[in-house]
Amino acid sequence: MELHAQTAVRAFYERLGYEAYGEEDIEAGIPHIWMRKAL
């Protein structure tokens, strides 16, 4: 499972088992990071 999370909520997704990968980028003026979790 992959998602494009706002960096402000990265820790929330990490607590759910997601891991960040790649570099941060900007979407709609807000920093985001790609995250994934094996199901």
From TrEMBL:
**What InterPro entries does this protein map onto?**
Acyl_CoA_acyltransferase, GNAT_dom
User: Locate the N-acetyltransferase domain: which residues?
Assistant: 2-39
Q: Name one Pfam family in it.
A: Acetyltransf_10
**Protein name from the UniProt record:** N-acetyltransferase domain-containing protein
